Amino acid sequence: MTEPQAPQGELHSIPALLARNVARYGNRPAYREKEFGIWQSWTWAEAADEIRALALGLLVLGLKPGDHIAIIGRNRPAHYWGMIAAQMCGAVPVPLYQDAVAEEMAYVLGHCGARFVLCGDQEQVDKVLEVEETVEGIEQILYTDKRGMRKYDHSRMNALADVQAEGRAAAQRLGPELDARIAAQDYDSTCVMLYTSGTTGKPKGVVLSNRNIIETSKNTAEFDHLRQREEVVAYLPMAWVGDFIFSVGQALWAGFTVNCPEGAHTMMTDMREIGPTYFFAPPRVFEGELTSVMIRMEDAGRIKRWLFRHYMEIARRVGPALLDGERVSLGDRLAYGLGNIFVYGPLKNTLGLSRIRVGYTAGEAIGPEIFDFYRSLGINLKQLYGQTEASVFITQQPDGQVRSDTVGVPSPGVEVRIAENGEVLYRSPGTFVEYFKNADSTASTKDSQGWVATGDAGFFEEKTGHLRIIDRAKDVGKMADGSMFAPKYVENKLKFYPNILEAVVLGNGRDFCTAMINIDLNAVGNWAERNNIAYASYQELAGHPQVYATIREHVEAVNRSVAEDEMLSGCQIHRFLVLHKELDPDDGEMTRTRKVRRAVINDKFADLVTALYDGSSSIYTETEVTYEDGRKGLIKATLKIEDAQVFGDWARKAVAA
């Protein structure tokens, strides 16, 4: 594959794109932030002035080319500016997850050797000060929010606003040096370093170049016709590659506006006020919103519930066809129009999705029922398939070719093929440069021709050319009788139900499949309140007989659906239990992007796994948990294990056994 050259006009770096946007869209809004209930706005010209002042201030503090500067905090314009300012100085921004515990933060800071750390607030500063006991090399700590910082030792600690003030004062003296550093950036300079989620081990630092980010942003922006008129809401972790591409790469390439909400507690209000036109969310966000909708409907009056059910039935039948421009009868169009007045329009407004032109979901497979629900409302939700190592995009769904069971066709500029063992391979301009300080992993992931092994199993459909992902290659296995085992396929079907937050399906090499299930405390708690069922804790509610009965109904409904898939019918769940605690990243059971760490769960809950397969009707267990303040504790519980009905050939096998 020949390397693409820099775009016309020498737009070979993020700072170069910023300068172009100032010249082209100078007075248009570039960033907005809501603070204390008020939206503040910066044009491209104003943002560029803030960024340059910060870059000059970093030079005053001694930031050198090649240095790594860690950025830890919530989505704020100042933090995005910090990334661009670092690039101007020839340094490498390394965003971290703001909810990472000190131990996780210590690994990344130590591994990248960060000399500078930009923190959002006092909480993040405290974590950095804590990890300095084991991490060497941190020389400067910057912070955005001054609250609570007055009594700290400021000998090497500065407020971001003060650094900018120093930069403005030094503009005449250091301006030529900064301009020289900006000019030295080329297409192969490092743009950012992002750490993987560490599903199977320690996170790896993925080095992405300007070429990776800009080519990917250019190609995908053109794919979906993204222009400067778009509005996006930046709310996902800045350490995640998706946020970097959407809120930095594509935002700088297309020149659209990045809106930063005040916080998670105001997210829905902020979404309604902004009305994003381009939106991305992982499946868990769409699952959570659907759960909230279903809870509200259960609390609604009889007439509202009837209207919702009646018009949602019409939406499921008609909505996707209308969205794809297919022929629909006049009667169905009129019925859908009435539904839009009474149900779909108000619902989309409540969710903040009224103006969505393009929406994407990725990160893991989304349940077909959840996906179809949003498209039935007229929301142009599509799927993409990607990785950090690909600068996100590997495949995308073109408009008019959207389905719940595929992830689309190769993104522009991306080549995809299937290896003999069924693993998906790709190469593209977005393919990462290397894993930082990990040549062995780089070599085992990317070959000499640039092909990257994704670790996912999949295949191309002959008729459509769309890619279907079965599961993680390492998770796909075989049952004892040789039938395919693909846990994620079943887990996503289970998570369609609002009562189920998370599920872990077991069965590789076994005679049958079992499952460990997390209930959704909001949904099930709401049901308990409506039915006057008292409970004192998650554990007590999870073990309630009526909760078990409801979960069994969901499991059996999923089994009935899975039985219809000839290839995966062996993945029906024969036995299940409801876990006594929520799977938690702080306990190591999930990554910060909420992907299940199966190896950890198999080891940590080995006694539960044994009980699921030895015929036990209950199991006593003790589990270590981590509290919010970092203390460790022990949860003790006796869990019930129940059987579930299976269907088709597997039902006959069960009877024979």
UniProtKB/TrEMBL annotation:
It comes from the Bacteria. Pfam families: AMP-binding, AMP-binding_C_3. Residues 19-435 form the AMP-dependent synthetase/ligase domain. Keywords: Fatty acid metabolism, Ligase, Lipid metabolism. This is AMP-binding protein.
